[in-house]
Amino acid sequence: MLLRRFLFLVLSAVALCLGGLRVAASTTYVYTDLGSLPVETQTFAGVSGNITQTLTQSAAYGISNTGQVVGTENITASNVSIANPHGSSVTDEREFSYFGGTTHSFGTYLNGNNSSGYGINSAGQIAGSSDVAGASATEGVLFSNGTYTSLASLIPDGQSKVNAVNEAGHITGWTDHEVQLSQTSFLTVQKVMFWKGSNPVILADLTSSQDGSFIASAGQAINNSDQVAGWSDVSVSGTFTTHACLMQLGHAAIDLGTLPGAANPAAVSYANGINNAGEVCGYSTAATGSNNHAFLYTGGVIGSMVDLGALTGGQNSYANGINNNGTIIGYGDEGVPGINYAMVYANGGMQDLNMLTSGTGNWVMEAAYAINDYGQIAGTAVNNLTGATHGFLLTPTNEATPPSVSTPPNDFQAPVGQNVTIVSNITGSSPLSFQWYNNGAPISGATSANLSLTNVQSGDSANYSVIGTNLVGAVTTNATLTVTSPIMYPAGYTAWAAGLNLIGASLLPAAMPFGDTLPNLARFAMNIGAVPTAGQLPVTSMQVVNGVTYLRLDYNVSKNLSGLQLTVQYSYDLQNWSALSNANIAQLADPNPQTSHYQASIAVPANGSVYLRLVVQPE
Q1: According to the CATH classification, is domain 7-396 in 2.50.20?
Q2: The CATH homologous superfamily of the domain defined by 411-484
Q3: Residues whose CB falls within 8 Å of the CB of residue 477, separated by 6 or more in sequence, listed in order
Q4: Alpha-carbon distance 575 to 561, whole Å?
Q5: Rounded CA gap, 367 and 112, in Å?
Q6: Is the pLDDT of residue 106 over 90?
Q7: Contacts of 292 (CB under 8 A, 6+ apart)
Q8: In 3-state terms, what secondary structure has residue 553?
Q9: Distance from C-alpha of 30 to C-alpha of 179, rounded to nearest angstrom
Q10: Per residue in 268-286, pLDDT tens?
Q11: What are the residue ranges of CATH 2.60.40.10 in the chain?
Q12: What is the mean pLDDT of residues 77-83?
């Protein structure tokens, strides 16, 4: 039994230039063999024993800007029973997903046997198809957040298929549509569809003088403006044929025609890709009439396609996708019909991707099916020795810069209840991926460059580390957070601090936000502003009285001070400090009604030194 299911790959974040990468002639790629990725071996109870699944083959059809790949794969299911100790095996096609070096399975819609994935957006929404248990038809499906949504045919037992999904989650593909020919006669026709949510709408295609309902059509790609690139049957000079076209809800379809020189009315064209600028790629009958060539359409009248030619020595080429930088991918032969090679077209030239890629071994890339805005390419390759088919992922390397830490974060303290942000300061080729850890354990959802913690508690004290990764490297940095007991501010402190616009760390009593050596708590206790005015205390002086030299300290104390006291201490060696006797402290007249003026004095030893300091502490 053949079971076709989603292939979904989440690889390390892409390491490319900001704003995307336009492939140049010198671009080289790193090859990832999707069929050889480590497999999560699944064992489950079968009818006659345990069944163990192992990945054998794969194919990749879509890729998002986050580096996620979707497609199909084959597995080998081994059935081992008591009656048959050697077991038996059968090769089936099933879905698998990849994250962090291990593949995982998605399943099918309503217990169906077959499913495939064709497109994926940055949110991880997958456009594909699946059959349903007990039904003969295949349905289009959207897989999002672990759940399948059916995008079924418009008629009972009809078929539908979805081929692409844009960043808004809007989808295109086709569905069977029933046309009534008479009271007893009906015709089933394939029609291009647009889904916004689960609501299907048939788009206008290339109708002719015939009944437009008889014309088949399909949507192959969709951009973020909901423009759909695809194909539609059309009548040309009385000849029924197929043309590439642009379709959009509420608009008439635009016939892209065929390549210049393809004069035969039976010449065909198909559109397979579209970017956000409305540039369309696909293939068309070439001017020779006997070959097909990839084309690029950038607007204009019917037949204004640009012929992209073929690979060196080749006769046929086919374009499957185009990114927002105008880079086109697909496949073509190199002189032997039927033997194809994956290709990339950029800056006016088409190149064989096999010639630009390292690490392919015995694998030959036959076709490229999708490209994202960072130049990553997904497709299929065949093994020259075994004949096996595997999906592949290519990532450009010559534009990549490994991640690095510009300034390591410092260890720090924060009081209970405060909000904390730890900045990684990791830079490198974009987009970078980040994962934060708490004492070595990954923090769920913490995948941004900075880590924000709200209302921290004592249990949040930990070593916080982050790994920044792109394709060409990874870097780790860390900082230790210590959550301290809640700060008990003295009465009036917060209002005083608000008057000086002190917030965050500058609000703390021990902070010195004004560039001097005076902590906030001392400044508050003495009612000193941000910038002391002339004559504002504290100030020290020397005075000789009756031949004795005294060190004096003049200071103010706020009259509204509550919960704090100022103590004058003295020392002869800056090591041992003692409280100065109240007999050595005199209160003087103070012109400021909000403060009290005090003067502390101590005799200076004849052959030594003495020091005074103010200590602010809770009462």
Answers
A1: no
A2: Immunoglobulins (2.60.40.10)
A3: 405, 408, 409, 424, 425, 426, 465, 466, 468
A4: 29
A5: 29
A6: no
A7: 283, 284, 285, 286, 316, 317, 318
A8: strand
A9: 50
A10: 999 999 999 999 999 999 9
A11: 411-484, 509-618
A12: 36
